[in-house]
């Protein structure tokens, strides 16, 4: 009988075991040893054989995932170290070639501090450590931040693998590093770097405070499978919501009874199994008093087998996804949207639990010159709040801190005590409500390009409001960075003033007129130039990338949706994020390629013989209407070159198109890919008041979404609880001001 994977180590060398299989018949607990072809029906025998021969998610993992015993490097014993006077400070490191401050490696020959590039620990960099080895031949490097009295992470460039350095203490002492004074935190950051109650690592994890473990239903931890804390944090928050509990755990018998022949590939089965593990209490039991006494008497600590390992769930939910299927750290917000997408596509029962997150956004676009407006609606699941840095209440302290930090960096001294920007929540809410400029706006009232502004309001309020603080952004060099700020998030939130009002008296709507199409002398040459030099709206790309999506996926989304804006491109991302090449670089089809190759480049034609949406978007981006693009592609077997010729040979059809309706159809078409319950009446929503109460938040520690650690805090039974992977404890100081994603529940009217 398949059970939840618990946090036990069956691969330990301390055990010798042999496999024995039995078929157990309940409720009499009658056992039959396997194999047994004489007593069992043929179908039962086949089922047992299939079960025994199936590979578990553990065995399906990449062989590189399993840790191997490290070997001593051949260079360690006779390593040459230059007497160049280099001394490594206890903190404040950065790559000497690119100023990167993470994934840094100390070369043990000359003391150079350089960045790595996707080494065995999955961290990213620009590869300057490897370049230095190729230039100098200096073979060994140690990763800064991993040095403890017990050792450190050492990599051999010559041997191309992680190695042991039996003389690491001597080699580090050459550069002034005393191993006995170094401690490393569970997250990989040295204790020397952490200042009491200042570092977000300590504050968010409530380090230095004795936390009381919590046990029982709803207090079950989840094992970190290797940078899977983003999944653990999101799933703990999801299964604290009654609608998800009822949909999956409440319907568990029915889901299991009607599960397919291979339940490992069924979303609802895996959700029900995970939910049962978290909520049943079977995997969160306090140690027996006798066990505690025995441990104290023997002065030993036996590892508790509490908590569950979501190995099978992660294997299924990340299958085919280029990011979530890896062992690298991911963005919790991106995973939340990925999960909602799967919930939408796999309805369970009469109600879809994801309905509680869905809301409608009304966007009002205004031409600044004519003052005319256009109102549109779109679906969303997250309220994204910008950080109003200019509204910081401690600007003088921040300026003084920055001056001290630069002085310490220049003098190679430890940095000063951190000063974090304090941002009022009201300022972030005001920034969300303010109008934003519309890039490259074409006014249908003026029949020309003009200045335009856009404001967003709630056309409906969801049952559960998810608020994301947009901490992740990009620098001028496109390097992702995180804003280390403190936002005073309220326990009670009222956004009723952000309710959409629709077209107001005295407002005049923009006419439904599309930009004029200028027919060039050589349309094929224009088409070729568009394909070879695609015009991609980089501002839309930036908006999507700030949400945490891979940069190349954002570029494809904007390109394939014809630069119609970040909202339409966002819908494309949701609909395509499970494709294997989702994060691969954009490949532009060449002009004149055959219909079959063109269709293959964009995705197969649908069962309803509709052309691939991406091919339609390319023609739309040239100024043609959607219905004309679809008709042209259908008439030419989805050949881009012939479709363009067909359009220019049928100019009379252009006059029959309805541009305003056409734009709406495209947005609705994209939204339909993620809405399971969208009909003529529109998407299902649970509208109500705009007053909410905070019940949970997910926090991120680290400098970017590609690294760091996630922790979840939830309010249960009148008190806050911290979920830090397997550790579930009563929270003493919930860091509500440092969260990344917040969960609010509507207050009943």
From TrEMBL:
Record: active site: 229, 709
Domain called USP: residue spans: 220-747
A biological process from GO: autophagy
Keyword terms: Autophagy, Hydrolase, Metal-binding, Protease, Repeat, Thiol protease, Ubl conjugation pathway, Zinc, Zinc-finger
Domain of life: Eukaryota
EC number: 3.4.19.12
Name recorded for this polypeptide: Ubiquitin carboxyl-terminal hydrolase
Top-level taxonomy: Eukaryota, Metazoa, Chordata, Craniata, Vertebrata
Protein family: Belongs to the peptidase C19 family.
Transmembrane segments: none
Pfam families per the UniProt record, alphabetical: UBA (PF00627), UCH (PF00443), zf-UBP (PF02148)
Reactions accelerated catalytically: Thiol-dependent hydrolysis of ester, thioester, amide, peptide and isopeptide bonds formed by the C-terminal Gly of ubiquitin (a 76-residue protein attached to proteins as an intracellular targeting signal)
CDD domains, per database record: Peptidase_C19B, UBA1_UBP13, UBA2_UBP5
Organism of derivation: Merops nubicus (Northern carmine bee-eater)
InterPro entries, sorted: Papain-like_cys_pep_sf, Peptidase_C19_UCH, Ub_carboxyl-term_hydrolase, UBA, UBA-like_sf, Ubiquitinyl_hydrolase, USP, USP_CS
Gene Ontology MF terms: cysteine-type deubiquitinase activity; zinc ion binding
Keyword hit for Zinc-finger: yes
Protein residues bound to Zn(2+): 95, 98, 115, 128
Signal peptide: none
Chain ranges of the UBA domain: 535-576, 610-650
Domain UBP-type: 71-179
Top-level enzyme category: hydrolase
């Amino acid at each position: 009988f398949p059970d939840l994977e618990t946090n036990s180590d069956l691969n330990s060398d301390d055990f010798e075991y042999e496999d024995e299989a039995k078929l157990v018949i309940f409720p009499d607990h009658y056992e039959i040893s396997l194999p047994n072809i004489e007593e069992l029906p043929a179908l039962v025998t086949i089922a047992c054989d299939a079960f025994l021969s199936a590979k578990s998610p553990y065995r399906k993992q990449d062989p590189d995932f399993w840790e191997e015993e490290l070997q001593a490097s051949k260079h360690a014993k006779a390593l040459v170290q230059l007497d160049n006077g280099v001394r490594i400070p206890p903190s404040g490191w950065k790559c000497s070639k690119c100023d990167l401050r993470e994934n840094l490696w100390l070369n043990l020959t000359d003391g150079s501090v350089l960045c790595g590039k996707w080494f065995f620990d999955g961290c990213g960099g620009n590869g300057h450590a490897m370049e230095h080895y190729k230039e100098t031949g200096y073979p060994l490097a140690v990763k800064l931040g991993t040095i403890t009295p017990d050792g450190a992470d050492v990599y051999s460039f010559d041997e191309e693998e992680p190695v042991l350095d039996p003389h690491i203490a001597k080699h580090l002492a050459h550069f002034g590093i005393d191993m006995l004074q170094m401690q490393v935190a569970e997250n990989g950051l040295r204790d020397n770097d952490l200042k009491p109650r200042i570092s977000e690592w300590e504050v968010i994890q409530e380090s230095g405070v004795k936390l009381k473990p919590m046990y029982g239903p709803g207090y079950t931890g989840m094992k970190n499978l290797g940078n899977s804390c983003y999944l653990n944090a999101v799933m703990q928050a999801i299964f604290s919501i009654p609608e998800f509990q009822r949909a999956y755990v409440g319907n568990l018998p029915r889901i299991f009874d009607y599960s397919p022949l291979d339940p490992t590939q069924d979303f609802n089965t895996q959700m029900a199994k995970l939910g049962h593990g978290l909520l049943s209490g079977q995997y969160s039991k306090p140690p027996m008093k006798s066990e505690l006494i025995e441990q104290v008497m023997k002065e030993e600590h036996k590892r508790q087998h509490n908590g569950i390992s979501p190995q099978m769930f992660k294997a299924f939910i990340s299958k085919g996804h280029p990011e979530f299927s890896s062992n690298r750290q991911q963005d919790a917000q991106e995973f939340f949207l990925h999960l909602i997408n799967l919930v939408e596509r796999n309805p369970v029962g009469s109600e879809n639990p994801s309905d509680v997150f869905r809301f409608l956004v009304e966007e009002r676009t205004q031409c600044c010159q004519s003052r005319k407006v256009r109102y549109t609606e779109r679906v969303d699941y997250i309220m994204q709040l910008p950080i109003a840095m200019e509204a910081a209440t401690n600007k003088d302290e921040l300026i003084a801190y920055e001056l001290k930090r630069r002085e310490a960096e220049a003098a190679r001294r430890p940095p000063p005590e951190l000063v974090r920007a304090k941002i009022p929540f009201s300022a972030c809410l005001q920034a969300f409500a303010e109008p934003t400029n519309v890039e490259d706006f074409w006014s249908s009232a003026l029949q020309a390009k003009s200045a335009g502004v856009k404001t967003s309001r709630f056309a409906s309020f969801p049952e559960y409001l998810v608020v994301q603080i947009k901490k992740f952004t990009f620098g001028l060099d496109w390097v992702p960075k995180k804003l280390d700020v403190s936002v005073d998030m309220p326990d009670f939130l009222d956004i009723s003033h952000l309710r959409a009002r629709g077209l107001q008296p005295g407002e005049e709507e923009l006419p439904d007129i599309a930009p004029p199409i200028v027919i060039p002398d050589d349309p094929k040459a224009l088409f070729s130039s568009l394909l070879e030099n695609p015009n991609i709206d980089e501002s839309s790309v930036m908006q999507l990338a700030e949400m945490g999506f891979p940069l190349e996926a954002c570029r494809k989304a904007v390109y394939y949706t014809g630069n119609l804006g970040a909202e339409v491109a966002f819908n494309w991302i949701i609909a395509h994020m499970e494709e294997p090449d989702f994060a691969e670089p954009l490949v532009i089809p060449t002009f004149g390629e055959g219909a079959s190759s063109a269709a293959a480049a964009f995705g197969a034609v649908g069962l309803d013989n509709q052309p691939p949406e991406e091919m339609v978007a390319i023609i739309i981006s040239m100024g043609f209407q959607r219905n004309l693009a679809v008709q042209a592609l259908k008439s030419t077997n989805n050949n881009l070159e012939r479709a363009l010729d067909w359009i220019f040979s049928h100019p009379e059809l252009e006059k029959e198109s309805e541009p305003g309706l056409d734009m709406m159809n495209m947005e609705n078409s994209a939204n339909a890919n993620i809405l399971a319950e969208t009909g003529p009446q529109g998407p299902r929503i649970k509208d109500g008041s705009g007053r909410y109460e905070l019940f949970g938040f997910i926090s991120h520690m680290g400098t970017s979404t590609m690294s760091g650690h996630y922790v979840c805090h939830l309010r249960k039974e009148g008190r806050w609880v911290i979920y830090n992977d397997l550790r579930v404890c009563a929270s003493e100081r919930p860091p509500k001001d440092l969260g990344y994603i917040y969960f609010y529940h509507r207050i009943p009217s």
